[in-house]
Amino acid sequence: MNILILHGPNLNMLGHREKKHYGSGGQDDLMDLLVETFPEVTFNLFQSNNEGELIDRIHAARDESIDGIIVNFGGLTHTSVSLRDALTLLPQDKIEVHLSNIHARESFRHTSLTGGVCRGMISGFGFSGYVMAVRALLENRETS
Fold this sequence. Notes:
5 helices, globular
């Protein structure tokens, strides 16, 4: 299985920002966890602080052999109709993950514009949320 992970603005700073919300690990730590937990899966991480680059990466995914997509668009989750529209172009299963519980934070974080076009959303479990998302993608592939 080939899974694309899309990270939005500021996620390149994991391990350096608000550890009570985001934990102490960085993106490399997350990828190490996923590769160790799921050695049979190929992971491709793409992170950008620019909305247009994320949209371009989503467009490119249409022509790739990607079986599932995990998205965490950071703050763009709550504001980007354009990312939502781009996600609708992809036939693959998509799962939105947030390290922190977006519903236990500021009210502007309670709404996800992108989550509505994903199969599901996992929020508030730190890196474990990504493990849950991969398991869900694997289980859905087995039942499809």
